[in-house]
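Limitations
The structure tokens in this dataset are predictions for the assembled complex, not deposited experimental models. Users should treat interface geometry with appropriate caution, especially where small molecules or nucleic acid strands are included. An illustrative entry is reproduced here so readers can see what is and is not provided.
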Amino acid sequence: MTTPAKPKGDGEELVEMEAMDLEEWERDKHTPQAGQKLDELVKQTAAAPPAPPPPARSTQSIARTVTRTPAAGVGVAAAVPPKSGDGNPFDGPTVRNAGAAMAASQKGSQTPPGGAPIARITPTKVATPPQGTPVGRNTTARTPALGVGVGSPAAPVARADAAAVVPARTQTPAVGVGVPARPTAAQPPQTPAPRATGGPPPQTPPPRPAAPPPPTPASTRTQALPIVTRTPAAAPAASVRVPDKAKAQAEDTEGWSLPDDEPAKSAPAKAATPSAASPAKPATAKIAPARGQAPDPSRIVAPKPKLEALQAENWALDDSAIEDPYAPKDAAPPAANLGSALAGQVTPTPSAKAPIANPAAKAEPEVDFDSPFAASTTIGTLDEDLPIAIAPAASNARRFVESVSPASSPEIDPLNPPTLDPDALKTLDPDSAGDLAVASDDLAVPTATDDSDDDDGDADDLSEFPPPPIVTAPAASGRRNTPAPIHTLAPPMGALPTDPTAPLAAPQRNTPPPMQAVAPPAAVDPLAQTYVPRMQTPIPPSTSQPIPTFRPPSQPELFEAEDARSERDQRAIKTDTFAAVKPSGGSKLFLILGGAAVAVIVILFFLLRGDKKPTTVATNDKPVPTKTPEVGSDVPTTPPDNTGSNDTPGSNTPPETHEPTAITTPPVTHEPTTTPPVAHEPTTTPPVTHEPTNTPPVTHEPTGRTPTGRTPTVRTPKNPKGNKVTTTPTPPTATPNTGDGGAAKTAYADGNKALYAADAAGAIAHFKAALAAQPGFAAAHRGLGLAYSLAGNRAQAVTEFKSYLAASPGAKDAAKIQERITALQK
Amino acid sequence: MFGACVPKAEPPPKLVYTPGKLVFAVLPAESPAFPIAARAATERLRRARVKGLDEPQMSKVSLDVVQLQIECVEQSNGCYEKVGKELGANQLLFAEIANGPRPDSIRVTITLFDVDGVTRRKAASKVFATEEDVVWGVNDVVEEATKL
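Predicted assembly:
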């Protein structure tokens, strides 16, 4: 009907709604016919045979119809099959509790005279109490949701399985539709239930405010929710807990019987709300509930905790005790069996208050359900379990007592311990016997014949006790902590000052006697002889020799004799520390000599660093002072002029030492490899380009020559530069362009060493030297590329690699080099 | 006497290959194409231990660098022997990273090489789907290669 409108003009998009003509309207007009398919579906799901199509009638929104019967009215059959003429299956409640129904049917389904409780379960049958038996709330047949108002009732769903019970609220449909309930047409003419105690019972308020109870006609009373089961006042059998809401109603509906009474009686006791008047409250709490059986109220007494009581009850229960629960006298409900009757202890309703069916209790599961919380369902079980549970414990306890009790074990008199039987020892394992033997050895009394003097603490030492006093000469002991005689440790008692105000005497210390403190001169003499040249005092190689004990005297004035002092010095000089620290007259000479030696070493060091330059100086024959300025690279002129006036000029004079000449000779070791002086000129070409200064190295030497050698700190900044100058030019000097690949290879090998050691700078220098030695040396380019890569200089690395590829395009490693180039260019 | 005090600007002494002397060298992995995998493999190789050998000496250059410099880039025992002798090592443990059979896959090969015997004592190889997988899985490869 809706088609997109054609774009008009400017591209507007309009949705055009086409009109519908009358014929089309009539053709497509559909009258909603609710119920046909629904009926079919319901019929399919329902097990009941398809009922004839019910006459059209108004929708029944009430779940069940309650018809009150007089309390003393005639009982209604628990399960009333629908009459043949009764085509409406909704007229009866849906049966759910098959077990109870079966029990009731076995019993004859007789309604007790006091009321007409209808069995809730009518398998596959819809039972409509002919006498207006009210329908339990939960037995409501599910009326299809025909809220439209034109519904056809569906077949009732008989639920024999109580486990599948759905709560009534969910099953009561169309309650809120607001359609007043009407009496079922299929129902027989129902007479208004006369009240047993007076006026009609008040209707139970609907559970939902949206569904107020419809006005009940005079003949039939229809109640929406919840349906209250009434039991005759004289029927105390039902042990139904009374809901709070319904309890109030129960007072007004006394004497009325509702069909759900019996199921209500079968409600579990645990779900029942114990009424104040219920005497069997503890009984219900103790004994497991059972459904479908009404207990004998006479047996529902206070629980007997003992087994005997249960047994007595068990035996006291017989068939005679099981009576019709609906009988007006005692109203004992029939019990299917003895166990269930016991288990189904129900709180009897002693007073005239009629128990009211508990909806929640009705929804409980089957009869066969055994609550795990029940103490026991049968007495026999208890009877059998007890010995099984107790006997082992008793036996174990007895066994334990026997094993623990000293009486059960051979008694050992602690006062008279048994002696070890040698025979018994034989039975022991060899290890334990050995232990015993060892122990006996340890405990053996030492004999006089055991004269061993070892001090191992065994029996031999016992014979030596008390040990003889050890008298050792402190001076001869050689120990530093020689124990002093006891009398020297503590002052005599008489030495204590009697006058407390008198100054205390100096505490006596454990000082060795003077003879102990002074070492025998014999031990010093040899040292004294060697001590004469203190500078060359040979320190004994091993200090493990016993050194005579020397303790600094606490009262030096007593010991400060001159000879003693000298002796002590001589002895102390023997130690390393004293010899190293103690100054003496001879040490001055040592210091002077040492300083001179250090100065010479420093001078030589600086001279040797510039070993190559001296040669060049010699070749150039240029005045030395003019060449000095070459410290840096481009500041040559300033130093020379200043040097003449400053202290540094003295550095020009240093040639006085003439050491450079002596030291420059060592460089000759390098020079032999280098070629004659002619080769030095090409040195100006090397990349270092320090040569433009016209043989600079000479300048380093004068600056490095300081007469005292005390200015190395001033020259240290120059050293690195000097090192660079010396190191870098060396390869070139070593690799002349002779065309011989030996020098280049040597430089290349050195470069590899540096490269493997991750010395990028050294490797670069060597590879450059190799290239200088042999310009077409491709491997040197490769090495340079690797060295630059190691140094992080990517650009140079790429350049060198490309040079390598250019020099040797067919190299095996060309692919790898190209790969490196690619990686470096990223 | 004075000459001993003079420093010499010479390259570090080269390790001298001595047959029979166990020098266990580990070469770091290097792969311009798979730097992450190379780093992971190197880190794991650094912690590798081989039964019967001392703690490995970590080389400062990779196998490729040495092979380039000795101009023996083949993955053969002969080249590995040369590498070992160049480094002065008797036992080599190194990783080789190459492309796998699939586009993004990586093949990592860990080799424990005996320079004296010119044989591979053990080698383990594994193909990883991605480079990141090498970080998590190279441990197993190294363990397998160093398990004797």
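Some entries come with short summary sentences. For this one: Strands of chain A lie at 2-4, 15-17, 64-66, 221-223.
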